[in-house]
Amino acid sequence: MKQKDFHIYLTEQERTQVISSLIELKNSLIAQGRYTDAVDDVLIKITKARRKHITVRYI
Q1: pLDDT of res. 17
Q2: Quick check: 42 and 50 in contact, CB under 8 A?
Q3: In this predicted structure, what is the pLDDT of residue 29?
Q4: 26-57 b/e with 16+ CB inside 10 Å = b?
Q5: Vertex 47: Cα angle to 22 and 53 (nearest 5)
Q6: Which residue would you say has higher pLDDT here, 46 or 7?
Q7: What is the DSSP string of the chain?
Q8: Which of 9, 34, 43, 51 fits a disulfide with 29 by CB distance 3.0 to 4.6 angstroms?
Q9: pLDDT for 19
C-alpha cells in the first residue's frame, strides 16, 4: 500500500516554532535515555523541504 503524501504550508514564524519544538522534544528524549530517530527524521525533512511562497486569497 502506498503511503499518502501530505503538504503543509507554514509561515516563516510557524516553521521556526516547529523546528524549535522538535529540538526541545529531542533534548527531552535524550535526557530520558530514549531513541530520537523519528524526531531526527522529521527535523531533516522540515529543514530540507523546499520553500514555496504562496498568496492566500479569501473570497
Answers
A1: 96
A2: no
A3: 96
A4: beebeeeeeebeebeeebeeeeeeeeeeeeee
A5: 115
A6: 46
A7: -PPPP------HHHHHHHHHHHHHHHHHHHHHT---HHHHHHHHHHHHSPP--------
A8: 34
A9: 95
User: Which set of grid coordinates corresponds to residue 4?
Assistant: 499518502
Domain residue spans in the chain?
12-48
Question: pLDDT tens for residues 31-40?
Answer: 999 999 999 9
Cell representation of residue 31: 535526557
Compute φ and ψ for 27, nearest 5 degrees.
-65, -40
pLDDT of residue 39: 95
